[in-house]
Specification:
The structure is a single chain. By secondary structure, the protein is an all-beta fold. The chain has one domain (11-64): Nucleic acid-binding proteins (OB fold (Dihydrolipoamide Acetyltransferase, E2P), Beta Barrel). The chain has no helices and four strands. It has strands spanning 11-17, 23-33, 40-50, 61-64. Strands 3-2-1-4 form a four-stranded antiparallel beta sheet, with no helix packed on it.
Length: 65
C-alpha cells in the first residue's frame, strides 16, 4: 500500500444548527441530473460534523471531509 494516495470526499455546506456541544449540523446541497428526463434536481443531505472548539455558528459555510 506504500505510495497510494487516499482521496477523501470533501463537501461544502451551510451550518444549520450549532446547539449541540462540539457538534454542528451541516446541510449539503448538490445538483444531479434526473436519469430519465435530464432535469437537474437539488439533493439536500444533513450531516453531523465534529466541531472541537465550537467555533462555527449558524449560517457559516464550511467544508467537511
Amino acid at each position: 500500500m506504500a505510495g497510494h494516495k487516499i482521496h477523501k470526499r470533501r463537501m461544502i455546506g451551510v451550518v444549520t444548527s450549532d446547539k449541540m456541544n462540539k457538534t454542528c449540523v451541516v446541510l449539503v446541497e448538490r445538483r444531479v441530473a434526473d436519469r430519465k428526463y435530464g432535469k437537474y434536481l437539488t439533493n439536500r443531505t444533513k450531516y453531523k460534523a465534529h466541531d472541537e472548539k465550537n467555533e462555527f455558528k449558524t449560517g457559516d459555510r464550511v467544508q467537511i471531509v
